[in-house]
Fold this protein.
Amino acid sequence: MGSQIQFTAADGRNLTGYEARAGGEPRCGVVVVQEIFGVTAHIRDVVDAFAAAGYHALAPAMFDRLEPGVVLPYTDIDGGRALVARLSRQDVLADVGGAVAHLAGSGRVGVVGYCWGGTVTWLAAARVPGPACAVPYYGGQMGKYIEETPRCPVMGHFGEQDTMPAPEQIRALVEAHASVTAHFYPAGHGFNCDQRGSFDAESAKLARSRTLAFLAKQVG
């Protein structure tokens, strides 16, 4: 359904992304922030699914700053973490900001992120101008950024069996930010990804329905 495009990050850097548009006039925009494995087939499927739900969706290829076209297998966790370690917070938020600006012509824009992208989404809610809402899925480092104050509504999805982040870390974050909504599922890390052993179909289905309802309320 989608295709690769080029767009400009907030700091002027050119990078690629996977984009899909709804048939006809899109209802609004959704930035999809990748896991540590790149813009994988799964992330492209997520983008396509948001387009099928009526949105103009874009997943920025955030490893383009290091090496264009990087996509890792889900077994290469160390490789993904090594790539992430080479990116600054300023760089990744500039990429998200550019994606938000690219989609702004389609209306209000939400940001949805998975794994590492969940943490980036939490930071974007606090630091990137423009998002109307943010939906982090199991952002492993979110607990380290509890002091960040989101500037838009946030709803997150987390596994009760996860350790990154552990449920108690997210509950502490919600206590610190009463406006944040967190849903917990009988699953582990990565439960939304049907290409990982931790995939939980029922949890993923429920999280998606909640995400779409939240987007409809906050974005359109």
Observations:
- The mean pLDDT is 96.
